[in-house]
Amino acid sequence: MLFTFDSYKKLLDTITGAGYAIHGIEKVLEFRLDGFIPEGKFTAIRHDVDYYPKRALVLAKIEADQGIATTYYIRRKFFESDIPIITKIAELGHQIGYHYEEIDTHQKAPNNQVARDAVGFFVGSLLDLDKLGFPIKSVCAHGNPISDVDNRQVVHLLRDDNFLDQLAFTYDRDLVAEKVTNRLIGDASIDITGKDFDVYIPDTGRFNPRYNLKDHIDDCKTAGLNNLEDLSAILGTTKNHRVYMNMHPDRWSGDILTWMFDFGLDSAKNMVKRFMGTSDYKGQLVGQKSESDTNEK
User: Fold this and answer.
1) Under CATH, to which class is 5-296 assigned?
2) Does residue 230 carry a pLDDT above 70?
């Protein structure tokens, strides 16, 4: 049975037992920055910490006990409320990244103001995290399935020199360059593509691609799992030497009651997702709201 802490240990055993090395996705971004992808068979793992940092710490300890280091992308609110937990995850040898959602949180502003507010908040967050002792090197977008916006737009804007030149920063530009734009080595939701990996396996929708609306990697096939035997079959093929996995700690638990609650909650979410279409990236700040605002003007 998947989504228990014990099954997570077995999942890691399945990967290493099939002869695969395990890296955090930030480590792969570092490899790419140096101009290469690791040779041999490997699996890159990232954890999007959406709700329960305590569960993330449990997974971090399981990995550390096996000598494995992965990447944990943390939402801003947990850096404000759960610093001791995040610090422990980092001390276990794992990479800490920023799980950003600035377009979602600022989309009620007029369209142009969304861009300014979102990028300004993103930059301010990374500067704040640096002061807290977390020099963020990689980021990953949070994907809200009930929203039509694409949070990745923030990073695209940050990489647009023309946009930054027009932005009235309240921060020192040299400081922003040093601790944000020059430090960031990549975005795990943008800069990784099918050129880097053979298959992407996210636990979104409880490993069911049918209920995965936003968690995709460009030009990379997505696979689902029903059990660990399915994972063994994927790892056993000659075509899948580079595997990328995303596992949300809030779906993994240590007792049957919590597991049943999570199963019921995810099942309810999946029922809603049945009636929703996929959300493709269109480069718009606030989706349909952006179009309607533009047309009205």
Assistant:
1) alpha beta
2) yes
